[in-house]
Amino acid sequence: MDWLKGVAKDEKSLLNMELLRLHEELAEFSEECAFFCDAFVAIVSCCDNFEKDGIGGFERNAHRLKRKSIELKERLQLIRGIESQISESR
To answer: H-type helices in 1-90, by residue range?
Structure first.
């Protein structure tokens, strides 16, 4: 990774700490988001005011949000892994 060549070791440590903090915040947000999505779909499913297609749309969007949240966490973990490998190789 050429973008890390000019970065000092303490700056790399700071970057790694920020990535870790971001990962932890994203993990917490993801859990809250998953809970909210599941709760919202459960509430909507119990209402007689919504058609099945509408409920299905809520379910699909809730699933999509949860899946995207997982993908973002995985990408952040990958970035942290790459940064760690670069730091170890120096």
So the answer is: 9-46, 52-89
Kindly report the CA angle at 80 between 5 and 71, in degrees rounded to 5? 130
| Integer Cα distance of 19 and 60 in angstroms | 30
CB 15 within 8 A of CB 7: yes
Query: How confident is the model over 58-72, as pLDDT tens digits?
Result: 888 888 988 888 888
Is 13 part of any domain? yes
Considering the domain boundaries, does residue 3 fall inside one?
no
Question: Per the structure block, which two tokens stand in for 76?
Answer: 């952040």
Confirm if 70 and 30 have CB atoms less than 8 A apart: yes
**HSE-CB for 48 with a 13 A CA cutoff:** 0
Biggest CA pair distance of the chain: 62
The better pLDDT of the pair 86, 40 is held by: 40
Is residue 2 assigned to a domain? no
